[in-house]
Specification:
The chain is elongated and about 75 Å long. By secondary structure, the protein is α/β, with parallel strands linked by helices. The protein has two domains: about 30-80 and about 225-425, 3-Layer(aba) Sandwich (Aminopeptidase), CATH 3.40.630.10; about 85-220, 3-Layer(bba) Sandwich (Glucose Oxidase, domain 1), CATH 3.50.30.30. Helix content is about 35%, strand content about 25%. The strands form three sheets. It has an eight-stranded mixed β-sheet with strand order 1-10-14-11-15-18-16-17, with helices on both faces. The chain has an eight-stranded mixed β-sheet with strand order 3-2-9-5-6-7-8-4.
Amino acid sequence: MKSFVCLLLIVFFSGYFAFSQDLDYAKQVVSKLASSDMKGRGYVENGEKIASDYIAAEFEKMGLKPVGTSYFQPFKLSVNTFPNSMVCIFNKDTLKAGIDYLVEACSPKIEGTFKVVILTRAEIAKQETLMAKLDKAKNSILYIDNREKEETDKGIKKKVDNLIEAIKYDPQVKVKAVIVQSNEKLTWDASTTVNSKPILSINKEMDPQNLKSISLNIVNEFKEKYETRNVIGFIEGNEKPDSFIVVTAHYDHLGLMGKDVCFFGANDNASGVAYILNLAKYYSVNKPKYSMVFIALAAEELGILGAKEYAENPTINLKKIKFLINFDLAGTGDEGIRVVNGSVYKNKFDLLTKLNTENNLLPKIDIRGEACISDHCMFYMKGVPCFYIYTQGGIKAYHDIYDKYETLPFTEFTDYVSLMIKFFDAL
């Protein structure tokens, strides 16, 4: 009897430690990719190159083969960057970058102290007032107070919103800079172009009517032919090596906004990279039926460019892909997962939900139709059957300075990995 109990304990704890090890490894990967060493995995100080080197080294440790002579698929892009510290002073009050304000990623350089012209939503709605204010602001900073959206008419509200966008991006609006104050959360993006004028978003609580002057010092560096790269590893199938399951996750993020602001991108998408590395680790030991290709994609934040590069210059025959799944935002799961293209490939979605119910893994699986919102889209447009899956619930940090390793809960990570292994093995 004692021997039987000991055997049960060994089986239980060996499973427990394997379970823990997977989660520990995922946390190690996210901690590394979302560290300050990686510079936000962007295009300042070689952040994305440091990250891609790390991922390739992990592939090599696991014994994944390169498809060809290298793990890397290089390609070139254009990107606007901000390599230096930024200064933004309202009267004599120095604002904190990333907390009080963000400089839009398409902004050009600006340096100096400028007068301020205030423009409200009510004034934007009146054409004569708007034109007079724009004329007055030609040698000044145009400050749009966008906090109070009191329009009861939806048509007028939409018109004002559209006019604000036009003011920001129309090169015929000749002002020194546009600053938009709102109550909305500050979120950043990346840009492949440079705008005609700088744009700043502010959410610091203050009365703009007290503004006399604004001082700015922002330096951009536009990199026209920057070379980045996808990272590709391969495990040969033991039954059907000429048919492929492909898993993808973008490894890039937003990088640095100046010297002092880093967007770490723990959930977006260090978590997705940790996810596919967990799968690679599992299948490097438990050989898959189909060959598996693991692709860490570059430049998703710049417009799904890494996926576009691979889809147009694939290292395998796209027609031989049995199924592809793209993983993004994999670090929560309090409210389950959502499957883009679930209604398109309903039989695969039904298999996924069946396995989840049978094994009591995730809280729920929601279905969604087509949506060209992540890397899967470029493959889908080439006729590759695919899902894009993301976790739901938990932290709300996204494209901001708060998306950090320290706050990422990994709520359903191990059950999520277990579910996908069961799914791939059932194909």
